[in-house]
Design a protein that fits this description.
208 residues; alpha+beta; Nucleoside Triphosphate Pyrophosphohydrolase; 9-stranded mixed sheet; 5 helices; 12 strands; 24% helix
Length: 208
């Protein structure tokens, strides 16, 4: 079994096999606060693991600065569920096609699902992890996406890159994760989901 095949096996093992989950984490859990009781908007994101010769990478986007939700932040391709979506996998694949032009034929396998994630902005996100095979060309939705870029998975998995910061939000001190990468700061929900993924995966890796 080569390195890529071994990693794919470990990724599958560390994820939930179904999106029908009761495990909910979120901004509140990271901040050490109780979950806000409110009606949540269903959403899904694609966590794209791109197979490169030098190793897997995670494909991320930089959102444009004028958006109503999470403007300017680094995020996974994804968004709110539409009535015609038959489930979160469809939502994640559709949104990836719409936002960055990633044709679903390049998502060669849905590996599984991370814990549901409740955001402070009222979304309940299903993170859908998928293996992506190049070559592919991206066409960004200029209204929503300023840039798409890849981060080596090994960088994400290194706990030395997981920083825990705090800020005052609506009168409360809230804590959140930050993963600095080059001149970028991955933070908030995206960073928290990546930290969750890294911890789950590292528990499965040899020597853990």
């Amino acid at each position: 079994m080569n390195h890529h095949s071994a990693l794919r096996h470990q990724v599958r093992r560390c994820l939930h096999p179904s999106h029908q989950l009761e495990t909910i984490t979120g901004d509140h859990a990271v901040a050490g606060l109780p979950a806000e009781q409110r009606e949540l908007i269903p959403a899904a994101v694609l966590v794209p693991l791109v197979e490169r010769p030098e190793g897997y990478t995670v494909l991320l986007t930089q959102r444009t600065a004028h958006l109503e939700h999470h403007a300017g932040q680094i995020s996974f391709p994804g968004g709110r569920a539409e009535a015609e979506d038959i489930g979160p996998v469809e939502t994640a694949l559709r949104e990836a096609e719409e936002e960055i032009g990633l044709d679903r034929r390049h998502v060669v396998e849905i590996a599984g699902f991370l814990d549901l994630y409740q955001t402070v902005t009222g979304f309940l996100i299903t993170p859908v992890v998928g293996f992506v095979t190049p070559p592919f060309e991206l066409t960004l939705d200029a209204f929503e996406v300023a840039e798409a870029f890849e981060v080596p998975l090994d960088f994400i998995l290194d706990p030395d890159h997981h920083e825990y910061h705090s800020m005052v939000y609506k009168g409360q001190n809230r804590r959140y994760y930050v993963i600095p990468y080059q001149d970028r700061f991955i933070w908030g929900a995206t960073a928290a989901m990546l930290v969750n993924f890294a911890r789950r995966l590292c528990d499965q890796l040899p020597g853990s």
